[in-house]
Specification:
- By secondary structure, the protein is of the alpha/beta class.
- It has a domain at 49-283: Aspartate Aminotransferase, domain 2 (3-Layer(aba) Sandwich), CATH 3.40.640.
- Helices cover 40% and strands 12% of the residues.
- The protein has helices spanning 6-11, 18-25, 49-61, 71-83, 94-104, 122-129, 151-154, 174-183, 235-245, 271-281, 284-302, 339-348, 364-370, 373-378, 381-385, 387-390, 394-402, 415-430, 432-436, and strands spanning 87-91, 112-115, 133-136, 159-162, 189-191, 199-200, 203-204, 211-215, 228-232, 308-310, 317-319, 324-329, 403-407.
- The strands form 4 sheets. Strands 1-9-8-5 form a 4-stranded mixed β-sheet. A 3-stranded parallel β-sheet has the order 3-2-4, with helices on one face.
- Helix 4 packs parallel to helix 10, helix 5 packs parallel to helix 6 and helix 11 (284-302) runs parallel beside helix 18 (415-430).
- The radius of gyration is 23 Å and the shape is globular.
- The two termini are 13 Å apart.
Amino acid sequence: MNTVTRRGFAAAGAVAPLATVARANSKLALLGGQPVRKEPFPSWPRIGPEDERAWMDVLRGGKWYRGSGAAVSRFEKGYARLLGAPHCLATANGTSALYTALNALGVGPGDEVIVPPYTFVATINVVLLNYALPVFVDTDLETFQIDATKVEAAVTDRTRAVIPVHIGGSPANLDAILPLARRRKLPVIEDACQAHLGEWRGRKLGTLGDAGCFSFQASKNLNSGEGGALMTGDEDLLERAYGFHNNGRGARTGSLDFSYRMGGANLRMTEFQAALLMAQMTRLEEQARRRDDNAAHLTKLLNEIPGIRPARLHDGCTRGAWHLYMFRYDPEAFAGVPRDRFLKALAAEGVRGSGGYRPLNREPFILNAVHSKAYRALYPARLLEQWEERNHCPVNDRLCREAIWFTQTMLLGARGDIEQIAEAIRKIQLQAGELRKL
């Protein structure tokens, strides 16, 4: 086993108490030693008496559907007020919000939609559901966000919308994307599904584009198991979105009015979801501050470790949402230990990370959709033949090999939790030679 002196440990990028140095010099847990951390990180969701009361009030009231109850409307007003948005439409989930936004904007067969390759699959699924063609713009390696400098080159006469994704709760470069979209007369749908309370130049993410979409799925910083919301300042878009999410029935039609203004689907939020969200929102700001403070401390510690590169926030970011804490791993700084083995060693030390997304633009189901009978009927054969080459994203391929995530719950604990994360990584680096032999 490798050993280091205290001076050597400090030279490796950390000045720590002797007890910390001793733990760092102990045998790796993956090799039979004691882990740095034995306690679990904070659990999720946080549940309090107010959540139970909110749920039971809806249950006992017997009005479980937004057409008869008032909880969904209260949530829409409350969430719009919290974000400083003119309008909010609650939906069944984040995918429903994105799907509704595309339909309200008239995106359909024959259209192209610009998307990033580093995102959850729902961003792409909603494009395919509308028989539009996803056009991937490569990733910026340092920020993990869509490379805004490459968006304009992807615009064609078929482009109908741009969907920047604020992945991990960190913003895409809206200073570059929004003016370009205005100049090219393209609507912007912010995928803010992971970006609750994140900010761009003091304005909440999800409120700067033509529409902004949020998810309240169980892992999210604000959650009700499932749920979503569409934010907009455009009343006409809101009306179309309401109709689409309500089986084609407009906002002002009653439950017994069976006239239809458009096609649509049932994508409504339930009263139970809305009641839980109102209760969960009472703790959202305090939790966001804690994540922000802990993320800043973790970034300071990880910047001291060679081979660990935290994702950079764009200059316009005035607040990150920290749904994910993202960084890149360089095996060369860890004696050539592959990322998957590093993650196993890290988990053994009591700190579980994830390798994150795979290259979405390379997923077989997307290629199958693009070359399907339906798409062949809708798009020129030459356009489809060139799709794969056009959507080559080499920087994203590299990011998918290097990325590591920590989940938002790991940022909800005490300062000592954050220091143990860095300690576990240092411990692995100091003994990477032993790990490499496995």
